Amino acid sequence: MTDLTLRTAVPDDAPALAAFAERVFRDTFGPHNRPEDMDAYCATAYAVDHVRHELTDRAYHTLLAVAGGAFAGYAQLRTAPPPPCVVGPAPLELKRLYVDHRWHGGGVARALIDRAIAIAEQRGACTLYLSVWRHNQRAIAFYAKHGFVAVGTSEFTLGTDVQIDPVMVRPLAAGPARPSPSAADAHG
After folding, report:
1. How far, in whole angstroms, is CA 90 from its chain's centroid?
2. Exposed, middle or buried, 114 (CB in 10 Å: 0-12/13-18/19+)?
3. Secondary structure of 11-75 as H, E, C letters
4. Which ranges of 57-186 does DSSP label H, i.e. alpha helix?
5. Angle at 62 between CA 58 and CA 65, to 5 degrees
6. Which of these, 161, 155, 132, 136, lies nearest to 36 by C-alpha position?
7. Which residues, 6+ apart, have CB-to-CB distance to 75 below 8 Å?
8. How confident is the model at residue 187 (pLDDT cuts 50, 70, 90)?
9. CA 33 to CA 38: how far, in whole Å?
């Protein structure tokens, strides 16, 4: 894929990103969930004003993958309190990583995860965590291939359906300066 470009989303991207994100979310999860739950979730999560707020909120960093002049995927990092099962230092959430089905297998997801990891490290994170739908074996395998391991679960509410999803973490190489381990830490 020669024309793939990764760039940080800006507030003017909100209408196009909201439409793209909702379409990809519905394509991924719609066949497996009740339509009324999908509608309720999407009405809030992908409303243009909500997406614009995320693009202006310093707690978020949204990365777009653009190919052929159109969105091929996106990733979103978020600073937020982690679920209790995430115990690593300086955690940062990989809140979303979606690729349009037309680009599956084309390297878009790999480019997004690699850049998201680099951005997380630049932001001082030492631990990257995410929640993934328990029935999305393709995504779980992708994250495991990129160094994430399951550490517990968290709730995700889709409309009125409370789902329990795996939480996965990956330690990061960079981050804020860390003190040297003590002798006790070094020997277990």
Report:
1. 17
2. middle
3. HHHHHHHHHHHHHHHHHHHHHHCCHHHHHHHHHHHCCHHHHHHHHHCCCEEEEEEEECCEEEEEE
4. 108-122, 137-145, 183-186
5. 160
6. 161
7. 62, 63, 65, 94, 96, 97, 98, 112, 113, 115, 116
8. very low
9. 7
Distance CA 25, CA 145 (A): 22
The pLDDT, as a whole number, for residue 173 is 83
Return d(Cα 25, Cα 139) in angstroms, integer: 13
With 50 as the cut, is the pLDDT of residue 42 above it? yes
Task: Enter the tokens of residue 109.
Answer: 């997801």
pTM of the model: 0.88
pLDDT digits (tens, 9 = 90+) for 80-102: 999 999 999 999 999 999 999 99
Query: How confident is the model over 23-37, as pLDDT tens digits?
Result: 999 999 999 999 999
Phi, psi of 186 (to 5 degrees): -70, -25
Distance from the Cα of residue 129 to its chain's centroid? 9
Residue with tokens 């679960």: 153
Q: Which amino acid is residue 102, in one-letter code? A: R
- For tokens 């490290």, name the residue: 121
Is the pLDDT score of 186 beyond 90? no
